[in-house]
Design brief:
By secondary structure, the chain is α+β, with helices and mostly antiparallel strands. Helix content is about 20%, strand content about 30%. The chain contains 8 helices and 14 strands. The chain has a 14-stranded antiparallel β-sheet. The longest helix has 14 residues, at about 30-40. The chain starts with a strand and ends in a 22-residue tail after the last strand.
Length: about 375
């Protein structure tokens, strides 16, 4: 297993962008906006991963940036300003930008090829703080002795229900509670040989689909603020995550859609780290999946050294490290669902006016591990 060593002289930045088709496929006008946006971002970011959302016709770009300052340089450039500020009131475009210091971010993967946060750091072996409940927390460095990474909210906020009613115009989210925990779990089945694929289909496919369903539908009571299940866009949407021989019978109609694709990612924002930890430890499907996986892919296991690609990103965010904007999106999209909550806040200013957080680098001092 590998992990990332992130820079300590500054944060790194991840910016999610989305375009809701507001139809089964994008119109000619919307496709033109998509192409123009891609021409802008692909030449500037460290890396751009392209997804489609499983349950909503839309495209998502997950872009990675060296620092908040490098993101700001691109975001405030003439071409980007011209594009974003001229979006129509029903554009369906949104942005959720977050920045993380080395003290409150981690990435791990079983492959040398970087994925996710791995694009923002140096790849090194994962030899410590792994294989036990609470390992992710033990890799974090608190900002102070009193910082337990707990949410500043006493109870999970209730989102406004998602609807397909378009919220016309711009809504900029300007306030967030501390310690929202962002997690990205990714899977790529494309390189698995037949023997490993058969073993996976017999032993893990059903469990994996059920666990993904459980986590992305966990809801506010379990501390989920926002969840998106996505599949790879550039892979040609190849159905190949499993064959039809699944060891654990599942009722496909009860599963979240889109879980057969060959490259997948779940983008999750939890109220805080403890909510993620609780569901991981107490969800029976996840406990069984984790135990069986460690046996099969561990030393002497049936799939030891297998070619399944997995990665996990995790970050703990302070309120000023998140910035979001929605332009003509469905009401209830992402953080827009909380714009009436007192611990969130919004305005209608154009989102290219970034906060002062993006102006100067902030040094961090992570624990040595």
């Amino acid at each position: 297993m590998l992990r990332s060593r992130f820079p300590t002289a500054h944060h790194f930045t991840v910016s999610l962008f989305g375009c809701q088709y507001q139809a089964e496929s994008p119109s000619t006008a919307k496709l033109d906006l998509i192409n123009k946006f891609e021409d802008l971002i692909k030449v500037a970011a460290l890396h751009v991963e392209e997804f489609e959302q499983n349950d909503l016709p839309s495209k998502i770009w997950m872009s990675y940036w060296r620092s908040p300052q490098s993101f700001k340089s691109w975001w405030t450039s003439d071409d980007t300003l011209s594009f974003w500020n001229s979006l129509p009131d029903d554009a369906g475009f949104w942005r959720e930008t977050f920045s993380l210091p080395a003290t409150r971010a981690m990435y791990e993967s079983n492959a040398e090829q970087p994925s996710g946060f791995g694009h923002c750091g140096e790849s090194i072996p994962l030899t410590d703080k792994t294989g036990y409940w609470g390992a992710y927390r033990s890799r974090m460095t608190p900002d102070s002795p009193d910082d337990k990474f707990a949410s500043s909210l006493s109870t999970p906020p209730e989102p406004r229900p998602f609807t397909t009613k378009i919220r016309y115009g711009r809504t900029r989210m300007t306030k967030f509670p501390d310690n929202i925990c962002v997690v990205v779990e990714g899977q790529d089945y494309s390189l698995m040989p037949d023997k490993e694929r058969e073993y996976w289909d017999e032993n893990f496919a059903g469990l994996t689909k059920q666990w993904v369903t459980n986590v992305v539908t966990a809801g506010a009571k379990q501390g989920m603020v926002s969840a998106r299940a996505c599949h790879g866009f550039s892979s040609g949407k190849v159905l190949g995550a499993t064959s039809h021989r699944v060891g654990q019978p599942t009722n496909d109609s009860a599963l979240f859609p889109g879980l057969h694709y060959i490259r997948q990612a779940q983008i999750l924002f939890w109220l805080d780290l403890s909510k993620m930890e609780h569901l991981g430890r107490w969800d029976k499907v996840h406990v069984k999946l984790r135990r069986n996986f460690m046996t099969a892919y561990g030393p002497g296991g049936a799939c030891e050294g297998g070619d399944l690609l997995l990665w996990v990103d995790l970050g703990i965010l302070k309120g000023n490290e998140i910035d979001a904007e929605y332009v003509g999106c469905y009401d209830g999209t992402g953080f827009l669902a909380y714009d009436e909550h007192p611990e969130f806040a919004s305005d209608s200013k154009i989102g290219t006016e970034l906060t002062s957080f993006f102006d100067k680098p902030i040094e961090s001092k992570p624990i040595d591990w």
